[in-house]
Specification:
alpha+beta, 9 strands
Length: 201
């Protein structure tokens, strides 16, 4: 592993089906990971859940297995992929890519770090790795993400990474008895490489 003067990992290695970032691993989610996801969902508070998805019924281990299985049924490849983020201490979170369009060169993604694991740089490192791979290996040219307007932490994070706010979708999300706007953020390959370097970081 090599780190430049911005503390950005420039070289990573592959171990089997893992991306190895030193103390952080990224791999495709398997049914066997359902237990870790189940514990994550079971311990997430209401406010935390609202920021990422929606407040839902309590999960079951079988339902979690089926949820992962639906992603696997789509098949491997770059169009829809669901990856777990792990470190030496266990489950950290997950990152997923969907609506990847080869013709347009665009993809949407989402990332979620477990409650209590945020603020340690995991999201930044995992996202740099995935974006760098899609931009500089698979030749995609633009990434988009929608963020609920009340999720101030995610908005701040994406601005720091280099995403730009591109628009607002009004009344897209219902929670806590009212509708909320969603903000559209995007980043181009040129913007990514200018800020982070033309690397799979």
């Amino acid at each position: 592993m090599r780190v430049d003067d911005r503390n950005i990992v420039l070289e990573v290695s592959m171990i089997g089906n893992y991306w190895d970032l030193g103390d952080l691993l990224i791999k495709c989610a398997e049914i066997s990971d359902a237990g870790a996801f189940f514990e994550h969902f079971k311990t997430s508070g209401e406010d935390f859940e609202r920021k990422y998805e929606k407040l839902d019924f309590p999960p079951s281990i079988r339902g979690t297995e089926e949820w992962i299985g639906r992603y696997q049924a789509v098949g491997s490849g770059d169009k829809n992929i669901f990856m777990i983020i792990d470190n030496t201490g266990g489950f950290v979170g997950y990152i997923e890519v969907w609506e990847a369009d080869r013709r347009m060169g665009t993809f949407r993604y989402g990332i979620r770090i477990a409650d209590g694991k945020m603020g340690k740089g995991y999201a930044t490192r995992a996202l740099r790795r995935v974006l760098g791979f899609y931009f500089n290996e698979l030749r995609y040219q633009k990434s988009d993400i929608y963020i609920y307007a009340f999720n101030k932490e995610s908005i701040s994070f994406h601005k720091k990474i280099g995403f730009s706010e591109e628009g607002r979708l009004r009344r897209q999300y219902y929670s806590m008895g009212r509708y909320h706007d969603a903000l559209c953020f995007g980043m181009t390959v040129e913007e990514f490489n200018e800020k982070h370097g033309n690397k799979q970081i």
